[in-house]
Amino acid sequence: MQPAAVPPVEHEGLLRVLGEAQRIGTLGPAPLTEVIRHATWFADALPPETNRVIDLGSGAGVPGLIVALVRPNAQITLVDRRTKCTDALLRAVAVLNLGDRVSVHRGDVEHLSRQSEWRESFDAAVSRGFGPPHQTLTLARLFVRVGGVVVISEPPADIPDRWGDIDLGQMGLSGPYPLGPVGVFHVEHNSPTKP
Questions:
Q1: How confident is the model at residue 167 (pLDDT cuts 50, 70, 90)?
Q2: What is the dihedral of CA 158, 162, 168, 170, to 10 degrees?
Q3: How many helices (H) and strands (E) in the chain?
Q4: Pairwise CA distance, residues 154 & 107, whole Å
Q5: I need a surface site. Which of 32, 74, 81, 172 has the fewest CB within 10 A?
Q6: Is a pLDDT exceeding 60 seen at residue 67?
Q7: Residue 67, helix vs strand vs coil
Q8: Is residue 32 classed as helix, strand or coil in its secondary structure?
Q9: SS3 of 185, please?
């Protein structure tokens, strides 16, 4: 893996793109350096051999755009169902000159997860704030091949374990393995009960 040429927190194009996302309401008001540093954990959590990554509910492109900058050899697919977001993501990909390896898809994640060309076709799925924990993990798992990983934001340390009630083994997962503010789940085997 070759490192990004410019650290994401100093990348002028990324700062401009995310600032615009805040202006149009596709990204919350948190300081951009904080947003970018948090998103960098997703890239750090991916195994070195990761080639294909899907960002579920990409919104403003966090963490997907940051993963693309940190992991220049990876192909990234940004998925969101909102036209406002995907239009902004298409502009962001162009501004950041990532069009050769970052694609934007407008669609419903649940619907896509039922389509054979999407199922288990990625090395990793990432999600920063897609939905409730069980739903996020269940859907993300459907996109990732055996041997891949699912990386999801963890809640603040003072919030109790949110994965305790989920039968990870039944889903074909092990984990979570905490890494900073994210949890990493390994896809160990195909789930015997796929939705």
A1: confident
A2: 160
A3: 7, 7
A4: 25
A5: 81
A6: yes
A7: helix
A8: helix
A9: strand
